[in-house]
Amino acid sequence: MTITPPRIAILGIHLEANAFAPTTTGADFRESCYFEGEAMLAEAAKPAPAMPAEIPGFIAAMNATGTWEPVPILITSCEPGGPAEQAFIDETLARMRQLLDEAGPLDGIYVSNHGAMIATEDTDPDGELYALARETVGPHHPVVATVDLHANISVRMADSADAIVSYRTNPHVDQAERAAEAAQLMRRLLAGERFDKSFIRLPIAAPPVTLLTAHGAYADMITEGQRHIEPDIPLVSVVAGLRLRMCPRPACRF
Ligand SMILES: [Zn+2]
Predict the structure, then answer these.
(1) Across the strands, what pairs with 34?
(2) For residue 150, how far is its CA from the centre of ligand 1 (angstroms)?
(3) b or e along 122-142 (b: 16 or more beta carbons within 10 Å of the residue's beta carbon)?
(4) Between vectors from CA 139 to CA 93 and to CA 13, what angle results, nearest 5°?
(5) Is position 235 within any domain?
(6) Total domains, the chain
(7) CA 6 / ligand 1 centre spacing (Å)
C-alpha cells in the first residue's frame, strides 16, 4: 500500500506596522519580498534567501521529519513601516485564495506571519489571513503559524489556527528554530493529534525597552512558559505585542 505524502500549503505576509508611520505600499512589499509558487521554493533553497527565515526553516524541518509535498502559495514581507496599503492586502489575499483553490486537496497549511500588521482600513489583516487558511482546509485539517515576539494576537488568529509558535528571542535569532517547532507540531497534527487551546491576554502593555529576552521580567515570563512544556502541553507562546505604538483608532479590535 502506498501512503500519499501530506500536501502542506505554505503562505504568509510579514509586516510590523506602526500606525504613525507612512503607508507601506504594495511596491514596498514587492521590492522587499514577493514570491509565488515554485519561485518560493527556488528562493528558499538559496544560501541566503530573500524571504523570512521561517520558510526555509519550515521546509528543512518537514524534509527531515518524513515525506510530504510542499505546496508553495505566496510569501510577501516588508521591513517595519506604516499600515499596509489596503488594496495590496486585498489583492494579495485574493491571489492567495485563487492559488489555494487551484492547488487541489490540502492536508494542512503553514502560515509564516509577523502578526503585528494593520492595513490602512482593516485593523486585523493577519486575522483575515488566518481565517482564509482555516476556511480553505476546513475544521479537520491543521493550520499552524509562526509569529514574531512582537505579534498582536487577535481572537480571529487564535480561533483560526491549531497552533501559533512565537519567537522566544529578542533580538530575534530563532526564526528557523521556531519554524522547525511548527513543523514538529504539524507532524503531530497530521498524525491525528488535536490540541486544546488557551488564549490569555494579560492586562499589561510592557514598554519595548523591557522586552529583551536574555534577562529581566520578560525573559522570566518566557522561561516560566517553557517550564510547563511536557508531552501533553507541547507549546506555550508568549508574545509582547506592539500595542503602544500601534492603533490609536477607536474601531481597533485589539
Ligand atoms: Zn519583533
Answers:
(1) 76
(2) 4
(3) bbbbbbbbbbbbbebbeeebb
(4) 25
(5) no
(6) 1
(7) 31
Contact 83/245 with Cβ under 8 angstroms? Answer: no
24-44: pLDDT as tens digits: 999 999 999 999 999 999 999
Distance from the alpha carbon of residue 101 to the mean position of ligand 1, in angstroms: 32
Does 236 map to a domain? no
Residue type at position 1: M
CB distance 117 to 92 below 8 Å = no
Rounded CA-CA distance 94/91 in Å is: 5
Q: Give the distance, in angstroms, between the CA of residue 4 and the centroid of all CA atoms in the same chain.
A: 26
Burial (CB < 10 A; 0-12, 13-18, 19+), residue 77, is: buried
Give the Cα separation of 14 and 52 in Å (integer). 8
Ligand 1 (ion): residues with CB under 5 Å are: 148, 150
pLDDT tens-place string over residues 58-91 = 999 999 999 999 999 999 999 999 999 999 999 9
Q: Which residue from 149, 60, 63, 62 is spatially nearest to 113, judged by alpha carbons?
A: 149
With respect to residue 151, please indicate whether it lies within any of the assigned structural domains: yes
Q: Say if 225 falls within a structural domain.
A: no
Helix, strand or coil for residue 13?
Answer: strand
Sheet with 7-14, edge to edge strand ranges: 33-36, 69-77, 7-14, 108-113, 143-147, 163-166
